[in-house]
Every structure is written in C-alpha cells, then in structure tokens.
Specification:
single chain, alpha/beta, 7-stranded mixed sheet, 5-stranded parallel sheet, 21 strands, elongated
Length: about 700
C-alpha cells in the first residue's frame, strides 16, 4: 500500500507528541538512575516513541490493541499515566494490569474509556494469534448483529521485527488474510533481536516477508519520524476501519535503550551501532521539526523540564505504594463458575432408548447453539462436508451454517490460541483438535496465553472456551492417533479438564463447560464414542434432558463393594476415568462384592475429598490410567492419596497404566501388550486384596 505524507499534523498533536516523547524519555532516565529500585526486569520504548504515539492517537475506545513489552510510549499516548505504569514496574498491589504479578508494560484493560487490551505475555510473537482472535470475534459479532458499534472497531497487534520469524505469527497472518479480518499488524523493526542481528535472523524485513499472504495489505515507512508515522498510521486506521480488511505495517525504528534492564546494550553492541541509532532519536527528530516549523525553543525546554518533574513525582509515589497482600497470591487462577450443583433431569422417564457418547455431544452443542448465538464451533474437518473425522459434529454445519460451524487450516496453535480473543469480546468458542497427538503445536498458546490470562489480568480476561480433544487407543490407531495426554495437560495450571466415560456425563459436563467462564478441555475417548470396543456398551445411556448440567469436580461411584466384605477388610477401591472404568468393571466380576469403582469424571478440578473418604473406608486402593504410568497424573494422585490416607491404609496405594513407551504401536498384538485391560486389572486386584 503506497501512501504519501502530504497531510500536515496539527500543532496540538505535535506538541502532545513531544510531551509524550519527553515523558517516555524521562521514565527511561529515571529507571536507569534508580537501578537498585527498579529491580524487576523491564524494557522501555526509547527509539520507538514516534510510531507508538502515532498509533496511540488513532485508537478509539471501541478498538482493541495488543501492545508488546516495549510499547510504554503507546500506553502513555493512550492516556495511561507514568504512575500507573510504574505500579507495574515495581510490582505493587495497585498495579492496574496484573496486581503485581507481571512485568512492566504488560497491560490488560477493560476500561470503558480506553481501547481494550487483552492479557499480554512476554513470549515473543505469541500475541499475534490471540489478537487475531479478537478481530475474528469482532467480525462474527458484526455479521450476526450481536452488538452495535458507533464506528467499526479496529484491532492492532504490535510486534517486534524478530518475533515475526515465529511460526505462530504466520498462522495469524494466514487466518487474517484468508478471512479478511479488521486488524493492523504493527511491526516495529529496530534490526535487533536481543543480540541477534537482522542478518543473522531473517532473509528480509516483514514487508517483503508478508508479500506471500495474499489479501494482507502492506505499508512501510520511517517509524522514527512522528509526522511521517502519524500520517501513515492515520491512513492505515482509516483503511481498516472503512474496508474491514487486514493490513501489515513495517515501521523502521531504532533501539536507543537496552533490550531489557537485564540484557544491557553494552553487553553486545559497539559504539558505532549505538551512535547510528542515537542519530535517529525520535525525540530529537521531532524537536528539530518543531523548531523548523517555528515553535518556541523555550516552550519545548519547559515541556522537557515539566515531564521530568511529573515522572519524578510519580516515581516517588509508586515507590511508596503498598506491596501486594501475600494472601492474594492464589487469587484469579480461575474466576467463579455459576455451575456448582447437578441440576436438571439426568434420566427422563419418557424414553428408554440409549444414545452413544458422540451423539450426546452433538445434541449438547446443538442445544447450546440454538440457545446462544455467541456460541460457534470450528476446527479441522468439523464443517458440513463430513462433520468431524469421528462424525462428532455431523449435522451441525448444515443446521447452523458455515459462519458458525466451519473448517480451519491445519493450525492447532491458531485453533487453540484464537479462543483467547474470541472469549475477550464475549463469544464462546468451541474448538476441536482432531487427535490428542496433535495438540502439541497448540501447547504454547495453551500454556503461555490461555492458562495465565485470568491470573495475570486479575480476572479481567479469563478465557471462556471449550477445547475438544479425541484421545486414547484402540483398534490399531497407531503412534500418532492413539495417544493419551492428560498428564501433560494436568500440569498446566489455570485450565479445567473433563474426561467423561458415558453419554449422560458427557452431555452434562459439556453443558457445565459452556457456562463456565474458564478454559475447559474435554478429553473424549475415541473408543467410547460409539461403544465399538467390546465391554463398553454401558457408555451408552438414556439421553439427559436439555436442562441437565453436571458440575465439574464431582466424582461418581460406578460400582459399590459389599458391606460384609468392607467390614471384613476384604475390599478395595479403584480410582479411574475414561476407558479405565470399563476395564475395572470387567475385572471386578472376578472379585464379586470386593471392589468399589470411582469414576473421577473431571481431572481438574479433582474430587479429592470423595476419593479420600472411599480409600479410608477400604484401606486398599488402585489408581488406574490408560497413560504410560511413569511420572503420570495417576502416579501423582496416588502419592497424594498415600499421604492423606496413610493412617487408614492396609496396603500401599498401587497404580496401573500402560507400558512406558513413547508411542502406541500400530500392530494390534503390540498395542494390546502396551495397554491395560480387564485381565491385567484383575491380576492387580488379586495382588492388592492379598495384603
């Protein structure tokens, strides 16, 4: 996109920009002069101020922006005060963004008078997908007329130049270009990636790199010149606001300050490089322009002095601010869910027909989507043509159309990470990863963005989503379509995990997940979808009514032991989930009256108290999983059971799982040898009861 800079900028805006530049310079100077106080790692905007302020001045309160960690000048230009920023710099209790939990210039804001800012992380480039999700959500809202805007909102994603080499940035570019989303990717190119030069890192700048993304308009200019930056950014915003199409901006900048306070410029830059960058200081360029245009030098010097006073005063005030209360350290991991009790009709009396698990999910989502226009479903192959590789979304595309149920490219990171932005604008995305084995490309977004968003934004941005993950092994699925991933997921704090074993639980938990404002992963065993695996007929149930909701964190007793056997000390309990329920039920037939079976139903939250009471009652326990056993969720839980129930145990808490292999072999004989089964469980029961 070729633009010129003929339009002059008003005198008021020029003076405002000079004021903000001097404010940014003063903050950087104050921080450098007080290194013993500004002990937490931080970056400043020195060298980037011109394009950041030019961007800030275009933003309206209905817009969304994701500043990156060097964008303090942008935040100042938006209207945040040095004091507010310093509260985060010093990790104080009243830090308006994260309550002392995150780094400097990592904002999050829902202030109605400011552009909105989702949680910002430090992982370079990772904001591209969540922010593109915001643009995706805004387009959906406008297409379905879910909210009225005075003007078309614009989304801005700010990035450093070297972050663009991240693959997830390309996923964002691809999706925005394909779906023509209203987003500006502002790339500030200072030619450094910590100590990595542009020559070491990339073959071209982002302007040339982005040429291959057909449908993504481009713009390139000098980001150290405020007049040029303002003129171009105004036209960029006008284009996106009017056309509702994506645009990439490549703005050349300089790095005058340190990469961060912890990686100082003298560690890796020579005097010639520093001199080259200092010669393009945006503050000096703007001052010279103002003098050329006839502004009074005394006035500019007064602005410089006044901004220094403002910063000094705010810094002293921030130093004196209260530290966070230690009792707040666990706040906001999750926000409260309204679903606390089991409600509705689980077993309607007007039907005796049972349904398979996959149909329970389809019906639950269908009922949700009819009732809630903010709900939408997307992922690989979930659209109308086949409705999922397991037919788990069949009929939904035809019923709701391709704007509410649609296919995506093979982009697990985008599928998962986009839910951050979709949730932020008030939508409820239900997305699918085709097989558990393919969730790994999305783990970065799951850990870096989704799991931390509520905690680091003090509850402003919990990610309300449902991520469906077909999991588990059966029938020769092989090493890339049979994996179990619950232990990896359970180690990610800040997400909830359900693992239903039957149709009624599946439908009730999916409804609970929808009304839960926190991120939820539904682990869905492929072998239970259609009850095709011998012995899993009981996964079919009578379908619960539409109003049925099953809360998370409520385990269920599947089989009770005989009281006589319990009283005689001849009983035990199996703690399991998913396919383990059916192995346990089959094995228990060989030990009549001696075995209680508990189905956990959800792994996070985990109904520990229910389990502990049962273990104390029996004194013997087996924790059963399909995963390879070593270092698994099952082993960790068994350890906690041992500690909590130690005085009541008559035998060690045992565990059983798959053989410790890196993959499930495709050969059916080898697969059987790897996995638990009813026979292996029965042998283990005998061993435990023999104590």
């Amino acid at each position: 996109m070729e633009l010129n800079t003929e339009n002059l900028v008003s005198k008021d805006i020029l003076l405002q920009a000079f004021h903000h530049m001097m404010l940014a310079k003063a903050t950087a100077d104050i921080y450098e002069e007080n290194r013993n106080i500004t002990k937490y790692v931080h970056s400043t905007s020195r060298g980037h101020e011109a394009v950041q302020l030019a961007t800030a001045y275009q933003l309206k309160k209905e817009d969304w922006v994701s500043p990156y960690y060097r964008d303090e000048a942008m935040l100042l230009g938006m209207g945040f005060t040095p004091y507010q920023l310093m509260l985060q710099l010093l990790a104080k209790a009243e830090d308006p963004f994260s309550g002392g939990r995150s780094y400097y210039s990592h904002p999050s804001s829902l202030d109605e008078n400011f552009p909105k800012i989702i949680h910002q992380s430090s992982a370079t480039g990772m904001q591209a997908i969540p922010t593109t999700g915001v643009a995706q959500g805004l387009k959906y809202i406008q297409e379905f007329n879910l909210k009225q805007f005075d003007e078309n909102p614009v989304v801005v994603c700010s990035l450093g130049d070297n972050s663009v080499t991240e693959g997830e940035v390309s996923e964002a570019f691809q999706f925005a270009a394909l779906h023509q989303l209203p987003i500006i990717y502002l790339v500030q190119d200072n030619e450094w990636g910590i100590s990595v030069t542009k020559e070491e890192a990339r073959t071209s700048d982002v302007y040339d790199f982005a040429a291959g993304f057909v449908g993504l308009e481009r713009m390139k200019f000098n980001g150290t010149d405020f007049v040029e930056s303002f003129t171009h950014m105004k036209r960029a915003f006008d284009f996106v606001r009017e056309e509702q199409k994506p645009l990439l901006v490549c703005a050349s900048t300089v790095l005058i300050g340190h990469h961060t306070s912890g990686v100082r410029r003298e560690f890796y830059r020579d005097e010639a490089d520093l001199a080259k960058h200092n010669a393009k200081d945006p503050g000096i360029i703007l001052k010279n322009y103002l003098l050329y245009e006839g502004f009074d030098e005394t006035q500019l010097e007064e602005i410089t002095k006044e901004t220094r006073k403002i910063v000094e005063k705010d810094f002293e005030k921030a130093i004196a601010a209260e530290e966070p209360d230690v009792n707040s350290v666990e706040d906001f991991v999750f926000v409260p869910t309204p679903i606390l009790e089991e409600t509705g009709t689980r077993v309607p009396t007007d039907t005796k027909e049972k349904i398979v698990m996959v149909d329970a999910a389809i019906h639950a989502i269908q009922e949700i989507m009819y009732k809630h226009p903010e709900a939408l479903l997307y992922g690989q192959d979930v659209g109308e043509r086949i409705g999922g590789v397991f037919r788990e979304t069949v009929t939904l595309g035809k019923k709701f159309g391709n704007k509410r149920v649609f296919n995506t490219a093979i982009q697990e990171a985008y599928i998962i990470g986009s839910t951050v932005g979709m949730s932020a604008v008030g939508l409820k995305p239900i997305v699918e990863v085709q097989f558990a084995d393919y969730i790994y490309p999305g783990i970065n977004q799951l850990i870096t963005e989704i799991s931390k968003s509520s905690y680091l934004s003090c509850g402003k941005f919990p990610v309300s989503n449902i991520i469906r993950v077909p999991t588990g092994a059966y029938g020769g699925g092989g090493p890339y379509h049979s994996g179990s991933v619950e232990s990896i997921l359970a180690n990610i704090k800040g997400i909830k995990i359900a693992y239903p074993s039957n149709a009624a639980d599946f439908k009730g938990l999916l409804k609970a997940a929808y009304y839960d404002p926190n991120p939820v992963i539904m682990l869905e065993h492929k072998g239970l979808y259609w009850s095709k695996v011998p012995g899993t007929e009981d996964a079919k149930t009578i379908e619960p009514a539409e109003d049925y909701i099953l809360p998370f964190g409520k385990a269920n007793t599947i089989l009770e032991a005989n009281k006589t056997e319990i009283d005689a000390g001849r009983s035990m309990v199996i703690i399991t989930y998913g396919m383990g329920v059916y192995w346990s039920k089959a094995a228990a037939k060989n030990h009549q009256g001696k075995v209680e079976i508990i189905d956990l139903r959800t792994l996070i939250p985990l109904d520990e108290s229910f389990v502990f009471e049962s273990v104390k009652k029996h004194g013997k326990c087996l924790v059963l999983t399909e995963e390879p056993l070593q270092n698994s969720f099952a082993e960790a839980f068994a350890s906690r059971i041992s500690k909590e129930c130690f005085r009541f145990l008559d035998a060690p808490v045992e565990t059983l799982g798959s053989v410790n292999l890196p993959a499930v072999p495709i050969n059916l004989i080898l697969e059987k040898e790897m996995l638990p089964n009813a026979e292996k469980v029965s042998v283990k029961i005998s061993e435990i009861l023999a104590y």
